[in-house]
From TrEMBL:
Protein name: Glycerophosphodiester phosphodiesterase
Pfam families for the chain: GDPD
Lineage start: Bacteria, Bacillati, Bacillota, Bacilli, Bacillales
PANTHER family: GLYCEROPHOSPHODIESTER PHOSPHODIESTERASE, CYTOPLASMIC, GLYCEROPHOSPHORYL DIESTER PHOSPHODIESTERASE
Superkingdom to which the source organism belongs: Bacteria
Domain GP-PDE: 8-272
Classification via InterPro entries: GP_PDE_dom (IPR030395), PLC-like_Pdiesterase_TIM-brl (IPR017946)
Alphabetical list of CDD domains matching this protein: GDPD_AtGDE_like
Length: 272
């Protein structure tokens, strides 16, 4: 973290769940690791206190749970009830049999493999319980805790030694600027990374994003001075746009499309 140069680091948002692997499953997590990335999972708790990897509050979008189950919050279901349903087949039949994983399943595959890192995006979890589990499995230095509230990032780092943290910053360009100003004014307290969401603008010619180039350069300069990584999440992966970000000097990314993103990276490297 905090390294500069031409090494490019990247997060597989939801493990690449939007396009390339079923959302928040062990298949998606392993896929990101195999490609050399850092999978991101969303953490929330079941009724019986099991921490699971699930983005949405319900099972409706990602599993084949029936109507009487799939609209109930996961917090009202037991882990056994959640595991009864397939979390891969709706994405693609070749992923049939995937289940909503417990966080412990992922941690077990991280133990003894320090190169396997993971982002944990807070949804609905007791932070003390999460911290105790991280300590139990000894994966502290492999975890990057993430949320859009800086106070939660600070709290997690106080609970669990060695864990890194990232605050994600989204919304309109004005909101992104205002939130970044607040984080900067705090001296990036409790943060190792800041992520800025990048949405594309229609009919762009010289710059593809609604967040302007000058602001991104400013954010990159300020984070570098503080020894903090600036990560960006471009929601659309297109070679020229990604190359513009690389030319700017940004070296940390998040993507919904790991394979396409890597293709853009390799094309850029070939031009250097």
């Amino acid at each position: 973290m905090g390294k500069e140069g031409n090494t490019i680091y990247w997060q597989a948002h939801r493990g690449g769940g939007a396009y390339e692997a079923p959302d928040n499953t062990m298949a998606a997590i392993r896929y990101a690791w195999e490609l050399g990335g850092i999978p991101e999972v969303d953490v929330r708790s079941t009724r019986d206190g099991v921490i699971i990897c699930l983005h949405d509050a319900t099972l409706e979008r990602t599993t084949n749970a029936p109507d009487e189950i799939n609209t109930l919050p996961a917090s009202q279901l037991t882990f056994e009830e959640i595991r009864a349903w397939d979390a891969g087949i709706k994405f693609d039949e070749k992923f049939a049999g995937e289940k909503v994983p417990s966080l412990e399943e992922m941690f077990r595959e991280m133990q003894g493999h320090p190169e396997r890192m993971a982002y944990l995006d807070l949804k609905e979890v007791d932070l003390q319980q999460l911290g105790a589990m991280i300590d139990q499995y000894g994966v502290n230095k492999q975890v990057i805790f993430t949320h859009n509230v800086q106070e939660n990032c600070k709290k997690m780092k106080q609970i669990t030694q060695g864990v890194k943290s990232m605050q994600w910053v989204g919304g309109s360009p004005d909101k992104i600027r205002a939130t970044f100003a607040d984080v900067l004014a705090s001296g990036f307290e409790g943060l190792d990374q800041v992520q800025i969401h990048l949405r594309s603008q229609e009919g762009a010619s010289d710059w593809p994003y609604v967040v302007d180039r000058e602001f991104l350069q400013y954010a990159l300069d300020e984070t570098r001075k503080a020894g903090v990584d600036l990560e960006v999440l471009p929601f659309e992966i297109e070679g020229g746009a990604i190359h513009s970000l690389l030319d700017l000097g940004i070296r940390w990314y998040a993507t919904d499309e790991p394979a396409r993103f890597l293709q853009c990276i390799n094309e850029w490297k070939a031009q250097q």
